[in-house]
Task: inverse folding
């Protein structure tokens, strides 16, 4: 299939609370939000599709491509709802996923808690056979033992198998042979680490293949059901998935490597924010995506989200690297906290208000939904503070019960803290906003950045309610709430290119660099990456080559972008110069004066993407027409600490160039933008809302 700018494209994003649908009919967006159906996640997609195709006046048969992202894989890992999985590994390495790296991320915590391994010890099987660090066979694979292991797995009622052998990133021959032997007796999915994550560091690689195997049966079953149901509804188009690195892959690839989908929804949001940044020529942006279950912060420089080769799921300590379950795949780098509209508010043993990570989700939902939820969520606090209109939530599709919110807040928090409903609700929102501000500061500092230097782009159903207050805490003077912000990730899916990143770890010192061998390796990676992209695109493909390099003896590497051309005889000198320039950019200066200090390459990466249409440029305007709100309502004002009269404006009634002075609430179908006293709002030429701090030079 060839993707063009004139395709009718449909994006579907399953979140923990809402499922968002966005339909692009030749430049016109139709969207809706549906409560996520946990029992049958595909049903919310189908219900949403019916709404948007009806609104657009087309049939599902007219849609050219469906692009889907989901948090189902993430939730299965966090909630431990995957298949019963067996791990087959090298003798002596049975406990790698439990011993981890033995790093104490909290040095003085005597009760350190780590996520338990996905696969318990009794379900891990070992076999003799050894591959060396250079890919050479040191000990042959014990095939007879594998036959016996296959019988034990078959008798054990397992639903999936993960194979992780030492040094298989350098030579996967033993893993591939083991899969052949096991497959003779087993009719269940078998994942091998050399295909899932061919990278150095056995703990991360083993854990990643375990995670892939753990969620694979569930995701394969779900994706098959979705395709069948779409065809039954009349869809004739292909379905593609957005992966954690921000590109599109086929459903078949996603079913085989579902771990690549773990951050697919948030990746769509980062793409959406990057597209907005490119549209307005904004080189330093922080995206803020707050939905029903989580909030995500991502730094975007030069219109490109920051990326990484590993990330963590289910951290047991907020913001602490090393406290979660590492997944070693290409991913858009962001920090994520359990602070969404459905996150539960509670009081800890010290009498402090806390929020999340537990979420009310869509079932039973916050107390105000009237679906059986009794515990107070952030949405309940927003409603009590007047940020939400109980009669016009989700376009009037869900009527909110303010009295139920007040009752839940008072019962679970207010009574313990001797506070009234409004004061307690304000405390809940302040804790949420402060937690998100801290997360943004930590993320920026870890990347050597100053968060206040960025413009914020806020999207997701809940982010526009909190964005202005978050900007106040972070010292950010400008914030954009794009058109379609409530379904931003789903719109981001529509902007995503077909893309795939292939990696391979080959530890090579520059003094031993062999251009012919590296050119052959990169040729294989390029063919692999382009092969995945060609399943959905037939146009021009561009490749980005990256070497992850370090000084010998260092524990981690830095990415060094390279030109897409074969290496010649002078490659070692060129790589040294590029490494030192990037090292200086990262750390301020390169290391000098140490004779014989070697530079080495750890991992090679080839990222292939198809070329997408360029984004039309717009200039930011500060407005030239003052718009006076026609109606008002009482909204709690954080600056004065009491309810205050806020203007209420329908977003659809505002035109480009209109400026509205805060305090005001700008309402639309999928979200509301709260403009606090400190800000004014200006409508941009593309319909986006620009919040500008009063008195700033922005």
Result:
């Amino acid at each position: 299939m060839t993707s063009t700018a004139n395709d009718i494209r449909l994006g579907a994003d399953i979140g923990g609370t809402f499922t968002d649908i966005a339909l692009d009919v030749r430049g016109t967006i139709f969207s809706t939000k549906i409560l996520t159906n946990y029992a049958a996640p595909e049903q919310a997609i189908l219900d949403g599709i019916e709404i948007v195709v009806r609104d657009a006046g087309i049939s599902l048969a007219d849609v050219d491509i469906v692009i889907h992202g989901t948090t189902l894989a993430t939730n299965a890992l966090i909630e431990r709802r995957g298949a019963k999985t067996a791990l087959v590994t090298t003798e002596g390495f049975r406990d790698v996923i439990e011993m981890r790296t033995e790093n104490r991320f909290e040095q003085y915590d005597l009760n350190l808690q780590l996520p338990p391994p996905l696969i318990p010890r009794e379900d891990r099987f070992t076999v003799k056979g050894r591959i060396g660090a250079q890919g050479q066979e040191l000990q042959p694979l014990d095939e007879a033992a594998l036959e016996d292991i296959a019988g034990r797995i078959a008798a054990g009622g397992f639903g999936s198998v993960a194979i992780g052998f030492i040094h298989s990133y350098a030579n996967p021959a033993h893993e591939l042979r083991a899969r052949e032997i096991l497959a003779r007796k087993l009719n269940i999915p078998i994942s091998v680490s050399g295909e899932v994550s061919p990278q150095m560091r056995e703990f991360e690689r083993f854990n990643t293949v375990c995670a892939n195997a753990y969620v694979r049966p569930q995701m394969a079953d779900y994706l098959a059901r979705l395709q069948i149901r779409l065809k039954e509804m009349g869809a004739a188009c292909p379905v593609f998935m957005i992966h954690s690195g921000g590109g599109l892959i086929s459903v078949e690839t996603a079913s085989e490597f579902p771990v690549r989908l773990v951050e697919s929804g948030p990746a769509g949001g980062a793409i959406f924010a990057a597209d907005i940044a490119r549209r307005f020529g904004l080189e330093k942006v922080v995206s803020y995506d707050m939905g029903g279950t989580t909030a995500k912060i991502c730094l975007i420089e030069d219109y490109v989200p920051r990326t990484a080769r590993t990330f963590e799921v289910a951290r047991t300590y907020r913001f602490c690297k090393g406290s979660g379950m590492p997944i070693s795949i290409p991913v858009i780098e962001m920090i994520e906290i359990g602070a969404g509209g459905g996150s539960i508010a509670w009081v800890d043993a010290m009498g402090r208000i806390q929020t999340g990570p537990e979420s009310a989700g869509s079932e039973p939902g916050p107390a105000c939904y009237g679906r059986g939820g009794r515990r107070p969520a952030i949405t309940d606090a927003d409603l009590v503070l007047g940020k939400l209109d109980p009669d016009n939530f989700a376009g009037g599709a869900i009527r909110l019960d303010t009295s139920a919110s007040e009752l839940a807040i008072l019962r679970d928090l207010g009574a313990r803290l001797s506070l009234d409903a409004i004061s307690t609700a304000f405390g809940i929102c302040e804790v949420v906003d402060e937690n998100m501000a801290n997360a943004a500061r930590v993320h920026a500092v870890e990347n050597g950045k100053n968060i206040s230097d960025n413009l914020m782009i806020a999207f997701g159903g809940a982010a526009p309610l909190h964005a202005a207050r978050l900007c106040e805490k972070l010292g950010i003077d400008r914030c954009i709430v794009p058109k379609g912000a409530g379904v931003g990730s789903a719109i981001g899916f529509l902007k995503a290119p077909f893309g795939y990143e292939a990696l391979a770890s080959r530890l090579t010192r520059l003094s031993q660099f062999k251009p012919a061998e590296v050119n052959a390796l990169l040729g294989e990676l390029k063919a692999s990456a382009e092969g995945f992209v060609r399943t959905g695109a037939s146009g021009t493909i561009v490749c980005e080559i990256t070497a992850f390099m370090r000084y010998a003896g260092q524990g981690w590497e830095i990415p060094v972008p390279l030109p897409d051309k074969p290496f010649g005889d002078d490659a070692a000198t060129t790589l040294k110069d590029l490494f030192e320039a990037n090292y200086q950019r990262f750390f301020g200066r390169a290391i000098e004066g140490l004779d014989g200090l070697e530079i080495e390459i750890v991992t090679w990466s080839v990222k292939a993407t198809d070329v997408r249409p360029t984004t039309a440029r717009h200039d930011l305007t500060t407005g030239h027409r003052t718009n006076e709100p026609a109606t008002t309502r009482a909204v709690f004002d954080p600056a004065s600490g009491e309810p205050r009269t806020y203007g209420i404006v329908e977003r659809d009634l505002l035109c480009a160039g209109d400026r509205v002075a805060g305090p005001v609430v700008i309402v639309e179908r999928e979200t509301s933008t709260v403009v606090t006293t400190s800000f004014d709002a200006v409508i941009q030429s593309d319909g986006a809302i620009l919040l500008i701090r009063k008195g700033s030079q922005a």
